[in-house]
Design a protein that fits this description.
The protein has 714 residues and is α+β, with helices and mostly antiparallel strands. The protein is built from 13 helices and 36 strands. 17% of the residues lie in helices and 36% in strands. The strands form 8 sheets. Strands 1-2-4-3-5-6-9-10-12-13 form a 10-stranded mixed β-sheet, with helices on both faces. Strands 29, 30, 31, 32, 33, 34, 35 and 36 form an 8-stranded antiparallel β-sheet that branches. Strands 14, 15, 16, 19, 22 and 25 form a 6-stranded antiparallel β-sheet that branches. The two termini are 24 Å apart.
Length: 714
C-alpha cells in the first residue's frame, strides 16, 4: 500500500433534507460581535543553537536544537518545545527548521529535543511513552523555564508522538507548563492509537511496531556525541526490545495500555489545550472527546487534510504561524490576542469525500461551534429496513443473514497518514449488506460521531462487524464519509472481553469516526455492513455468519442545521503549495516524513488477486536517498511490505514489514535492518521480529526473536 473534510444558506434545503429522513431542526445561538483584529508581530532576527545538552537528574543528557529571537538574552521570551524519538540532527531537520522559522521570528523560542535513547540523546528507549520519557519531559520543562533567555513560561506542541506525549506530560502538571498544542493525538492508547482498532488487532500495530524498532536501534552521530558514539549505539542495540511481542501479548485494555491514556483522568490536565487535526486522520475523533471532557480553557480545529501540520497540508492548508503565535502570546505572555473570544471548535464542512475531490481541494466551508458538544446538533435515526432501505421508522421485524466469507475493506486499505486514504467504495459495497435512504430532497449536513446501533448474532464465538457510511450519487458512485470496526467480543468491555454465544442476539453500539460532511441534494445516504475490514484489522479466526435484526438496528446521524450565518474564519488559508514547500508536505510509506519532492499525488494501492483467491499487497520500495547538506550526511531508506490473505480462509493472513536505514558521511557508515513477520492459526499468533546492524559492510549485531502468542478472543 502506498501511504501516503463550509456561505451560508438555511431554510428550505436543510428542512427538506431533514424531513426526508425524519430529523428535527434546531439552531444554536452563536455569540454576537466581530472578532477583535489581531496581526502577527513584525518579524525579528533569530539565531539557532545547533546542539544543546539538557541534563537529567540521573546523569543522562538529552540533545536539543534551539531557535530563539536574537534579543532573547536581554529580553526573555516564552519557550515552546517538541519532544520526539525522530532524529533532530538529520532526518527531521527540515521539519524542525520550518517550525523554528514559524515561531522564533515572532518572539517565541522553539526547542526540539530527542527523547532519551534516540537521535543524539544518551540512554536507551524500550517503549513508547515510557515512564523515563515522561519524567524526563517534566525535567526538560523545568530546565527551559530557568534559562536566562526564557520568561519562565513553557508551552508544548507536536503532532502524533509529540501531541500524545504533550497530553501525557500535561497530565503530570509541571508548574512551568502553561499551555499545550497537541495535534493528531490520542486519549486512549489501546483503541485510539495504532494498536487495537475497535478491540481488533490492527494492521498498523504491525506496521508501526516494525518501524518503531528502527527508532530505538538507530545510531547517534559522532559529529555531536563524539568518540563514544559506537558504545552508545551498541547499548541501544542490546536494549532494543521485541516490541511487537509486547504489543501483541497485551490484547486487552489492561494496565499496560492505561498508562499514558489520559481518558482515565481528564481532570489531571490543568493547563489550556488547543488540539488540531485533519479529517483524513482517524485521530480527529479525539478532539471531540477532549473538548467535551476537559475542564480547562480549550479549543479545537479540524481541517481537510491528513496526519500533517496545517501549514504543510496541501492543496488547502493554513498560515499556521498566525494562529499558533496568537495562542502562545495569550497563554505564555499574558497578551490579550482575542483568541479565546472566538469559537471553541472550528471544522471544515466537507462537501465531497476526500477521494472524490482528490487531488484538488475538497469543496466546503469552515464552520464554528461555540461549545462542544453543540446544543444545535440533533440526532436523526435511520432504521435498517427490508428491501435494502434506510427508513424513518422501525418498520421491519425481519432478520438478514450475512456470510462473511468475502474480503471487505480493500477500498479503505490504510488507516492514517495521508490523503486520500480510500477509493470509491463500490467494490466493497458489492460484498456488504447495504441500506440506502431515499434520494435527499435537499442538502443535509452532519457534524459529530455517527453511531451504528445494531442488534446482531453470530454463529461463532469470535467475530467482527464493520460499518461504512457512504454517500451515493445518482450515477451509482459510493464515496466514503466515515467508518469503524468492532471486535464483537469487546462489545461491552475492552478490559474484560467475553465470547459470543452462537445464535444469541446482542445490542451493539459502534460510534463511527467523527466527521463534518454535507450530503448533497439528490444523493443517498448508505450504510454498508460487513464482518470486518481487511487489511485494516486482522481477521477473526473463523468465517462468521451474522444475523442482523432490521427494525432494532439503525444509524444515528448528528445533524447540524445549515445556519444563516457562521462565525468568521480568522486564520489565513493557503490554497496551494508554493514551489519551495512542495517537497515538505505529506508522508511517504505511511511511516516516515517525505524527504524528496513529491512528483505527483498518489492514491492508495489496490491489491493483486490470483486464481486461488489470494489477495496481496506487495511493495518492494526502491532505496530513497537524501543528502542533508547542513550536516553532510546522506540518509537512505528502503521499505518492503507484504500483506496477504486467501479469501475464505482467515487463518491464511500474513503481514510482513522490513525496513533498512543507512546514514553515511565520509567513513562514518551505519546501517540497520529491522522488521516483523506475523501469521496465525485459529488459536495463536506466530511472530518473528528482527534487528540487524552493520558498520560499513561488517555486521556488528543481529537479533531475531520468534514468539508464539495465544489469541485472546481476537
Amino acid at each position: 500500500m502506498t501511504i501516503s473534510r463550509r456561505d451560508v444558506l438555511f431554510g428550505t434545503a436543510a428542512s427538506a433534507s431533514l424531513a426526508a429522513i425524519g430529523g428535527p431542526l434546531a439552531l444554536g445561538s452563536p455569540r454576537s460581535g466581530p472578532a477583535p483584529v489581531w496581526r502577527l508581530p513584525a518579524k525579528q532576527p533569530f539565531k539557532v543553537i545547533e546542539n544543546e545538552w539538557i541534563p537529567m537528574r540521573d546523569g543522562v543528557r538529552l540533545a536539543a536544537r534551539i531557535w530563539m529571537p536574537a534579543q532573547a538574552e536581554s529580553h526573555p521570551v516564552p519557550v515552546v518545545w517538541e519532544y520526539l524519538p525522530y532524529r533532530l540532527w538529520d532526518d527531521l531537520r527540515w521539519r524542525d527548521d520550518k517550525t523554528g522559522e514559524n515561531l522564533a521570528p515572532y518572539g517565541v523560542a522553539f526547542v526540539r529535543v530527542d527523547i532519551r535513547g534516540t537521535g543524539n540523546s544518551e540512554g536507551i528507549m524500550v517503549d513508547e511513552y515510557d515512564v523515563p520519557e515522561l519524567t524526563d519531559g517534566v525535567q526538560v520543562i523545568a530546565w527551559l523555564a530557568k534559562q536566562s533567555w526564557s520568561n519562565g513560561s513553557v508551552g508544548m506542541r507536536g503532532i502524533s508522538w509529540g501531541g500524545i506525549n504533550a497530553l501525557q506530560i500535561a497530565a503530570m502538571r509541571p508548574p512551568e507548563l502553561k499551555a499545550i498544542m497537541p495535534m493528531g493525538c490520542v486519549v486512549d492508547r489501546y483503541t485510539d492509537d495504532a494498536h487495537y482498532m475497535g478491540g481488533a488487532y490492527g494492521e498498523e500495530n504491525m506496521g508501526w511496531g516494525a518501524s518503531f524498532k528502527g527508532h530505538m536501534a538507530a545510531p547517534p552521530d559522532p559529529q555531536v556525541v563524539g568518540e563514544g558514539w559506537e558504545a552508545m549505539w551498541r547499548q541501544r542495540l542490546d536494549a532494543t526490545p521485541a516490541i511487537l511481542q509486547s504489543w501483541t501479548t497485551h490484547q486487552r485494555y489492561d494496565a499496560y495500555w492505561k498508562r499514558g491514556s489520559i481518558a482515565t483522568d481528564y481532570d489531571a490536565i490543568q493547563c489550556p489545550v488547543y488540539v488540531i487535526d485533519g479529517w483524513g486522520d482517524p485521530y480527529e475523533s479525539i478532539i471531540g472527546d477532549l473538548l467535551a471532557n476537559l475542564k480547562v480553557p480549550r479549543k479545537g480545529l479540524i481541517g481537510p487534510w491528513g496526519h500533517i501540520f496545517p501549514n504543510l497540508a496541501t492543496p488547502l492548508g493554513l498560515d499556521w504561524p498566525y494562529e499558533e503565535v496568537r495562542w502562545w502570546q495569550h497563554w505564555l505572555e499574558g497578551k490579550e490576542t482575542g483568541i479565546m473570544n472566538e469559537p471553541m471548535f472550528r471544522v471544515y464542512m466537507m462537501y465531497e469525500a476526500d477521494s472524490q475531490a482528490f487531488p484538488a481541494e475538497v469543496p466546503g466551508r469552515w464552520v464554528a461551534e461555540h461549545v462542544w458538544p453543540s446544543p444545535r446538533t440533533r440526532s436523526s435515526n435511520l432504521y435498517f429496513d427490508a428491501g435494502d432501505r434506510l427508513s424513518q421508522k422501525p418498520n421491519s421485524r425481519e432478520h438478514l443473514v450475512y456470510v462473511g466469507d468475502k474480503i471487505v475493506g480493500l477500498t479503505k486499505p490504510q488507516w492514517v497518514y495521508g490523503r486520500p486514504t480510500e477509493f470509491e467504495q463500490t467494490p466493497d459495497d458489492r460484498n456488504s449488506l447495504l441500506f440506502d435512504s431515499a434520494p435527499l430532497d435537499g442538502d443535509l449536513e452532519i457534524l459529530g460521531l455517527p453511531i451504528a446501533k445494531i442488534r446482531v448474532s453470530a454463529d461463532v464465538p469470535v467475530a467482527q462487524i464493520g460499518v461504512r457510511l457512504t454517500e451515493v450519487t445518482p450515477e451509482g458512485k459510493s464515496w466514503l464519509v466515515t467508518y469503524n470496526v468492532l471486535n464483537l467480543t469487546r462489545r461491552e468491555s475492552m478490559e474484560q472481553p467475553t465470547a459470543l454465544k452462537p445464535g444469541e442476539f446482542y445490542d451493539v453500539e459502534l460510534p463511527l469516526y467523527m466527521i463534518a460532511h454535507r450530503f448533497k441534494k439528490g444523493n443517498r445516504v448508505r450504510v454498508a455492513v460487513s464482518a470486518g475490514l481487511w487489511p485494516l484489522v486482522w481477521p477473526s479466526p473463523q468465517i462468521a455468519t451474522l444475523r442482523i435484526a432490521l427494525g432494532a438496528s439503525h444509524l444515528v446521524l448528528p445533524v447540524r442545521p445549515i445556519p444563516t450565518k457562521e462565525a468568521p474564519f480568522t486564520i489565513p488559508v493557503i490554497h496551494a503549495a508554493s514551489d519551495k514547500d512542495k517537497g515538505a508536505r505529506g508522508y511517504a510509506n505511511g511511516l516516515q516524513w517525505v524527504k524528496t519532492p513529491l512528483t505527483s499525488p498518489a492514491l492508495p494501492q489496490m491489491p493483486t488477486r490470483d486464481a486461488t483467491g489470494r489477495i496481496r499487497y506487495d511493495r518492494n520500495g526502491e532505496p530513497n536517498s537524501t543528502f542533508i547538506s547542513a550536516v553532510g550526511t546522506t540518509s537512505t531508506t528502503a521499505s518492503s511490505r507484504t500483506i496477504e490473505v486467501t479469501e475464505g480462509d482467515p487463518t491464511s493472513c500474513r503481514m510482513k514489514f522490513d525496513h533498512t536505514d543507512r546514514w553515511k558521511r565520509g567513513d562514518w557508515d551505519c546501517t540497520i535492518q529491522y522488521g516483523g513477520d506475523l501469521t496465525a492459526t485459529a488459536e495463536e499468533f506466530h511472530l518473528k521480529e528482527w534487528v540487524v546492524a552493520k558498520k560499513g559492510d561488517v555486521e556488528i549485531f543481529r537479533r531475531e526473536t520468534p514468539s508464539t502468542i495465544k489469541r485472546d478472543l481476537l
